[in-house]
Amino acid sequence: TWKWVVGPMFLYLCERLVRLWRSQQKVVITKVVIHPFKTIEVQMMKKGFKMEVGQYIFVKCPTVSKLEWHPFTLTSAPEEDYFSIHVRIVGDWTEGLFNACGCDKQEFQEAWKLPKIAVDGPFGTASEDVFSYETVMLVGAGIGVTPFASVLKSVWYKYCHDATNLKLKKIYFYWLCRDTHAFEWFADLLQSLEAQMQERNNAEFLSYNIYLTGWDESQATHFVMHHEEEKDVITGLKQKTLYGRPNWENEFKTIAGQHPGSRIGVFLCGPEGLADTLNKQSISNSEADPRGVHFIFNKENF
């Protein structure tokens, strides 16, 4: 038995040593931005840090806890000179980070007063393969939109400079969210991307559908009164917010009809139940003929 145990244990110890060494490297917090819906954006810099879209890191803040490590998806693009995460305040550790960064205070917080942060990573996910397809479906649920923030930012940077070598030709983006406040921090990015595509006469590149799955009676009355306005009352985008949940069977059939003979990447960051639904739809809407349309499902659950 020991012959079979020694090898894996040696590799595990090597990995732990590498992760310990990486976590000891200096990380500088350059900016902390408070977004609506109890969400903060932490922008950081670390020497030699290289990332790809959709990757994640482990974060430790000794001021909050000397032992706890928490995973966060990177929301910055590889083209930016910093890396960032978005943290939603939902528990003791995130509340401690919120307070340690001085977000509970009204006055401006000096950079040297910000807490020390240890970072381990980045680590790869399925979202890295987005640029390997000509057509993709990106599905985010709630805060699960974060890996696609990185993808859409990277697309925006590529279009600002030179998109001729970009294999990706069409993005279908779906965001499902229960609360209207969650749209606010992400809507600015979509507005910038929407304007960029219109300037380059390529408005068809990004098709996005934002679904609000929860609302009350007063909100519904407000939505109805402003429905005829040019821009959406919630997001400020030209594409109006939809209410309820998408009919995935119709969505898959429509996309399959528009891209015959294509390999379409389906990327999800969301709960397990939604993953099962999309996986079944990907299988049932893929053709047996190798020359037909095929949906390739990739998931990242939380």
From TrEMBL:
Keyword Hydrolase tagged:
no
Q: Which organism is it from?
A: Pygoscelis papua
Q: What gene makes this protein?
A: Cybb
What keywords does the record list, in alphabetical order? Cell membrane, Electron transport, FAD, Flavoprotein, Glycoprotein, Heme, Ion channel, Ion transport, Iron, Isopeptide bond, Membrane, Metal-binding, NADP, Oxidoreductase, Phosphoprotein, Transmembrane, Transmembrane helix, Transport, Ubl conjugation, Voltage-gated channel
Please give the name of this protein.
NADPH oxidase 2
What reaction(s) does this enzyme catalyze? NADPH + 2 O2 = 2 superoxide + NADP(+) + H(+)
Q: Which domain of life is it from?
A: Eukaryota
Which intervals hold domain FAD-binding FR-type?
19-129
Q: Which GO terms describe its cellular component?
A: monoatomic ion channel complex; NADPH oxidase complex
Mind telling me which InterPro entries this protein's record contains? Cyt_b245_heavy_chain, FAD-bd_8, FAD-bd_FR_type, Fe_red_NAD-bd_6, FNR_nucleotide-bd, RBOH/FRE, Riboflavin_synthase-like_b-brl
Q: Where is this protein chiefly located?
A: membrane
Give any single GO term for biological process. Answer: monoatomic ion transmembrane transport
Cofactor(s) required, per the database record = FAD
| Protein's job | Catalytic subunit of the phagocyte NADPH oxidase complex that mediates the transfer of electrons from cytosolic NADPH to O2 to produce the superoxide anion (O2(-)). In the activated complex, electrons are first transferred from NADPH to flavin adenine dinucleotide (FAD) and subsequently transferred via two heme molecules to molecular oxygen, producing superoxide through an outer-sphere reaction.
Q: Which membrane topology term applies here?
A: Multi-pass membrane protein
Q: Which GO terms describe its molecular function?
A: metal ion binding; superoxide-generating NAD(P)H oxidase activity
Q: What does the UniProt entry say about where the protein is found? A: Cell membrane
Xref: CDD domains: NOX_Duox_like_FAD_NADP (cd06186)
